[in-house]
Design a protein that fits this description.
- It is a single chain.
- By secondary structure, the chain is mainly β.
- The protein has a domain of about 40 residues.
- A hairpin with a 6-residue loop joins β1 and β2.
- The model has no long low-confidence stretch (mean pLDDT about 85).
- This is Insertion element protein.
Length: about 60
């Protein structure tokens, strides 16, 4: 498993002043808006990727 992925910006204010939180894995703090949030990977979707067909409105 690779190292944890870091968010590029705050989901609330969009600022990039982020740092890991002491609250545990996936927890982050934003220095700009003073909010804390947690990121969590839920899993892969079972339906997979669906692309629109260029010639019609059908999906593959």
């Amino acid at each position: 498993m690779s190292e944890r992925a870091a968010p590029f910006y705050c989901p609330y204010c969009g600022d990039e002043d982020l740092r890991p939180s002491d609250e545990g894995h996936g927890a982050w703090e934003c220095g700009a808006c003073n909010r804390a949030f947690r990121l969590k990977f839920l899993g892969l979707l079972t339906r997979g990727l669906q692309r629109a067909d260029h010639e019609g409105d059908e999906r593959i």
